[in-house]
Amino acid sequence: MKLSKEKRNQLVLAILAVLMIVCGLWFTLIRFQQSSLARLREDADRRRSKVNQILETIKNRDQIQAELLVVSNKLAIKEEDMASGDLYSAMITAITKFKQPYQVEIPQFTPSLAPAESSLLPKFPYKQFTVSVQGTACYNDLGQFVAEFENRFPSSRVLNLELAPASAQTPGEKAKLSFKFDIVSLVKPGGGR
User: Fold this and answer.
1) Of these four, 36, 65, 85, 142, which has the most CB atoms within 10 Å of its CB?
2) For residues 141 and 104, is the Cβ–Cβ distance under 8 A?
3) How far is CA 136 from each of CA 89, 172, 188, rounded to the nearest angstrom?
4) Cβ of 105: how many Cβ atoms within 10 Å?
5) How many angstroms separate the first and last alpha carbons of the chain?
6) Which segments within 62-120 are labelled E, that is strand?
7) b/e per residue 155-164 (b: at least 16 CB within 10 A)
8) What distances in angstroms separate CA 132 from CA 140, 157, 188, 189, one per listed residue?
9) Helices (H) and strands (E) in the chain, counts
10) How far is CA 71 from CA 10, 64, 65, 74, in A?
11) How many domains does the chain have?
12) Do residue 123 and residue 182 come from a single domain?
């Protein structure tokens, strides 16, 4: 079948118009739909992964609860040595009992006004209470007292230690030092005033 030149041009233009419309549809609708489907697939995969993680956690809840109980018990044991109630009295009682086997004289205690936010660590959930201590002792006795105090009470720290020769000394006595330091202790939650 032979077409006239005019009919052939119209047919070519019609084919080109159809191709342009098909290409336009492809780039506007179909490609947009494909990218939407790809995003939906990624979102579904992400949600499926989250659901699997939740199911795994649910499956392991008994183990997680057991681990939480163990950690909670360890924390409760550590909190037993923390000051609570009348903080000043509790600190003085603890220090006085602890110093008995040591040759350390501590006649003066000065408390801070109230428990304060912890300055030992940032964003720490415990408050702290500070007691300043002054006294006299031999160098070795004081060193042993401080080291063993911090080992016995891991929730307390000795800070700002100042040493000076003691003013009154008898001739046969070991050389004594005057000391002053702060004991910063964590406060048991709900235990301080």
Assistant:
1) 142
2) yes
3) 21, 16, 30
4) 16
5) 106
6) 83-85, 104-111, 116-117
7) bbbbeeeeee
8) 21, 12, 19, 22
9) 5, 6
10) 84, 11, 10, 5
11) 2
12) yes
Tens digits of per-residue pLDDT, 99-138?
A: 888 888 888 888 776 776 766 667 777 888 888 999 988 8
Q: What is the pTM of this model?
A: 0.59
DSSP-derived pairing of the beta strands 83-85 and 176-192: parallel
Q: Hunting for tokens 């494909």 — which residue is that?
A: 34
Q: Which residues make beta-bridge pairs with 187?
A: 83, 127
> Whole domain around residue 54: which residue ranges?
5-59
Q: Is residue 74 included in any domain, yes or no? A: no
Minimal CA–CA distance to 183: which of 100, 63, 82?
Answer: 82
CA trace torsion 17, 21, 22, 28 (10° rounding): 160
The answer to whether the beta carbons of residues 153 and 128 sit under 8 Å apart is: no
Q: Which of 130, 133, 126 is nearest to 187 (CA)?
A: 126
